[in-house]
Amino acid sequence: MALHTEKPGIITTELAGAAITKRRFIGFDDKVISVYGALAKGVSREEDSDINESFAIVISGTALVEAGQALTKGQRVTSSALGKAVNATKNTNVNGIVMRDQATSGQLVEVFLTHGQGYLTNTTTTTSSTSSTMSTTSTAA
Fold first, then answer.
1. Within 10 A of 60 (CB to CB), how many other CB atoms are there?
2. Rounded CA gap, 36 and 79, in Å?
3. What is the chain written as a DSSP string?
4. Which pLDDT band, with edges at 50, 70 and 90, does 117 fall under?
5. 106 — alpha (psi -120 to 50), left (phi > 0) or beta?
6. Res. 116 pLDDT band, cuts 50 70 90
7. Residue 134 clears pLDDT 70, i.e. is over it
8. Is-contact 6 61, C-beta < 8 A?
9. Are the C-beta atoms of residues 32 and 25 closer than 8 Å to each other?
10. Distance between alpha carbon 99 and the CA centroid of its chain, in Å?
11. Within the chain, what is the greatest distance between any pair of CA atoms?
12. pLDDT value, residue 136
């Protein structure tokens, strides 16, 4: 098993809009994300913080996020309603891409932050002609 590390790019300091749990996706309201699939500003660092306290957020590069389920390298992730990294599904914001497999929920996983670059959608287009039918599935990035 590979060691999960982070390679943060930009780290900013914000004022907590609510109690902050370490290693969770943070929304643009400077709170731990509480809605599945919401857009993330970044990931809280290695300390918990109380409301109105300054805290650090990784907003680029890779960050360690608590996994809300088993995750596979290369998988697109969004935020659970607890700010944990979970599989992105249809109509959710993609907040990152898993860098290494993490088979255990509750453990830290390295995620390349994408800040919702891409809204995961699955659309099927069917074109019919007299000789063939073509179906395509596309994922917006």
1. 16
2. 6
3. -PPP---B--EEEEE-SS-B-TT-EE-TTSSB--STTPPPSEEE-SS-B-TT-EEEEE-SBEEEEEBSS-B-TT-EEEE-TTS-EEE--TTEE--EEESS-B-STTSEEEEEE-TT-SEE--EEEEEE-SS-EEEEEE---
4. low
5. left
6. low
7. no
8. yes
9. yes
10. 12
11. 66
12. 39
Name the β-bridge partners of 120: 92
How many residues in the chain? 141
Which pLDDT tens digit goes with each residue over 83-112? 999 999 988 999 999 999 999 999 999 999
40 neighbors 93 (Cβ within 8 angstroms): yes
Q: What is the pLDDT of residue 8?
A: 87
Six token digits for residue 64: 């360690």
Cα–Cα distances in angstroms (integers) from residue 138 to residues 89, 126, 128, 141, in the given order:
13, 12, 18, 9
Tell me how far apart the alpha carbons of residues 81 and 114 are, in angstroms, rounded to a whole number. 19
Dist. CA 130–CA 141, nearest whole Å:
33
Answer with the residue of higher pLDDT: 115 or 139.
115
